[in-house]
TrEMBL record:
Cellular compartments per GO CC: cytoplasm; extracellular space; membrane
MF (Gene Ontology): metalloaminopeptidase activity; peptide binding; zinc ion binding
GO biological process terms held by the UniProt record: peptide catabolic process; proteolysis
Coiled coil: none
Taxonomy, superkingdom: Eukaryota
This protein's name: Aminopeptidase N-like N-terminal domain-containing protein
Domain (Aminopeptidase N-like N-terminal): residue spans on this chain: 44-160
Native source species: Aquatica leii
Length: 164
């Protein structure tokens, strides 16, 4: 098995001695038996991500968000698959818009919990080299301390006492 991980922290926020971090891997795992790798039919080019954390109760913190992903289609396909670990996505908020501003109907979505996939099935084939925009206008999740996805991390300010 070859493990190749490139990642960047795209959000770092401090709230009451908690760090709020999001880690987005560019490449996850690759091996002959890897079933977590996304199908090779789409390449994300750009993300426009909005996240609104709710810290009312840090031990049960949540977040809401939306994203627009600019995607290049690499192989003809009637679906787009993304990773969605621990996210709840409002299916009615999912849209695919072509570069000519035409909206492609989403016929249904599937959730593959084992592989953390969210599969968006379309009523039309997307063609190779086409540029599309995937809109997910409403998703939410829980902030945890498990260092996966969008998570909380605790630190101690050396000049002050840590809360608790």
């Amino acid at each position: 098995m070859c493990i190749k991980l490139q990642a960047c922290i795209i959000l770092k926020m401090v709230y009451n001695n908690y760090l709020l971090l999001m880690l987005i891997p560019n490449v996850v795992l690759s091996s002959k038996t890897n079933t977590f790798q996304l199908p090779p039919n789409a390449l994300p080019l750009q993300y426009n991500l909005t996240i609104e954390p709710n810290f009312e109760n840090v031990d049960q913190a949540t977040f809401n968000g939306s994203v627009v992903i600019k995607i290049k289609i690499l192989n003809d396909s009637n679906n787009i698959t993304i990773h969605s670990k621990n996210l709840t996505i409002n299916e009615d908020s999912v849209k695919i818009i072509l570069s000519n501003k035409t909206t492609i109907d989403v016929t249904h979505t599937l959730v593959d919990i084992r592989r953390d996939f969210y599969i968006i099935c379309l009523n039309k084939n997307l063609t190779k080299n086409e540029i599309v925009h995937l809109y997910i206008n409403e998703f939410n999740g829980n902030l945890k301390f498990d260092n996966v996805g969008f998570y909380l991390a605790r630190y101690q300010d050396l000049n002050k006492e840590s809360p608790d």
